[in-house]
Amino acid sequence: MPTSITSLKTPHHSVIVVGGGQAGLSASYYLQQQGVDHLVLEKHSVTHTWRNQRWDAFSLVTPNWQCALPGYRYSEEHGGKDPHGFMKKDQINDYLAGFVKAVNAPVREGVAVRRVIPRAAGGFEVHTSHGEFTADQVICASGGYHTPIIPRLAERLPVGITQIHSEQYRNPQALPQGNVLVVGSGQSGAQIAEDLHLAGRKVYLAVGDAPRCARFYRGKDVVDWLAEMGYYQIGVDTHPLREGVRDNTNHYVTGRDGGRDIDLRKFALEGMELFGRLEGLQGDVLQFSGNLSESLDSADAVYNRINGSIDKYIAEHGIDAPAGERYEPVWAPSQERGELNLAEQGITSIIWCIGFTPDFTWVEAPVFNGRGHPGHVRGVTAQPGLYFLGLPWLYTWGSGRFSGVARDAEYVVEHLVRAQAKHKVA
C-alpha cells in the first residue's frame, strides 16, 4: 500500500526553506539562532546563480561595504580590504563561499521543490524530486527571477542568428564572429553592451526605459550619499510609490575598473548604434519605435534629479563638498532609425536583456496577484505559515541584495517564531 504524505515515515521539519541563495541561507542563519528545526532545499547547489549566471567581467554595481549578509559583513575579518571598491565575480564567489561555511546551513542540494500544498489541518506538504516532506511553515527564498523573457518574435529570426539571454552571456569571445544586437538597457544590458564595446565588437543597442545614475558625485560614491540621506532605509510602506516601486527598473551604472558612469550617448559617439524600443520583425528587418531620444532624455533626467537631491542635502546640512554640475548630453540622435536589416549589418548574435518573470506555480496557495507575484507584507503572506524572501523591494531597496536581505530574513524568522509560539499555546 503506498505511503501517505501524512505518514509518520514522511520527513517532517518545523520549517522548510526553498532556495539556497543568499536569502535562504540568511533565513537559516536566523533560524539557527532561534533554535528552530529546519531544512534548506536547493535544486542546484548553494549560491548557484552567482557562480553560474554571471558574465566573466561582472562586478558589483554597489560598493563592497553594502555587502552585509548576517554574521558575515564585508570586512577585513572576512577577507575584505576595499570597502569602497566593487568586487569582481571571483571575489563575490569567495565572499559567498565564506558565508556558506560560516552559516553551515542544513542543506540538501540537487532537490527540486515541485509542489508546496497547504494542509487543511495546518502546515504544508512539500513534494520534491527526491520525495515528500511535511513542514509546519515554509519560507520561499528562491528569488523572483525565474523565467528569462524572450519575445515571441525571436521564433521568426533567421536560423543563422545566435540568440542568448543575458543569463547565458559569458564574454565576447564566446559569441560567433560578427556584429551583436543587445536588446534592453537595464543594468545587465548596459553592462553587457559595454563589455562587447570595450572588446572592439560592433554593437547595436535597443534602448529601453531604464533610468541611470552617476557613479561618483561631489566627492563620494552616489550610493554613499544616498545611504547617508536614509534612502536605503525607506520601506515600501512609506515610499512615495508604495508597492508600485517594485515595478521600477534598476538604474544602470557600473563598478567595472573601480566604478564609473555608463553613458549611452558616449558609446554612440564611439560607434555603438542606438535604437528605440524593439517593436517588430519583417523578414530579416527588425522594427523599432521612434522613442530613442525620449528614452535617453528620461534616463538623464533621473540622473540629474538624483544629483539634485544630493545638492539639496549638502546645502541643507552645510556639508563641505566639491561643486556639483548638471549633466549635459554629449550626443543626440539627429534622425532615429526605425529599421535594422540583420543581414546587411552583419549581425550574427542577439542578446536578450529584458529581464525575467517569476514562476511560483509550484506554490499552491491563494496568495498571488494576476501577474504571478505573491501578495505579502514584509514577506508575510495571508496564508498562515507561508513566507517569501529575496524578492526585489520585499521591504526596502536592498531586499533582494546583499545589503538588505539580512533585515528581511530576521523579520520573517521573528514573525515565524511568534506564530509558532501562538500555535503551541492554542
UniProtKB/TrEMBL annotation:
Molecular function via GO: flavin adenine dinucleotide binding; monooxygenase activity
Pfam family, one: Pyr_redox_3
Highest taxon of source: Bacteria
Alphabetically ordered keywords of this record: Oxidoreductase
NCBIfam families assigned to the protein according to its UniProt record, in alphabetical order: MSMEG_0569_nitr (TIGR04046)
Protein name: Putative flavoprotein involved in K+ transport
Organism: Pseudomonas abietaniphila
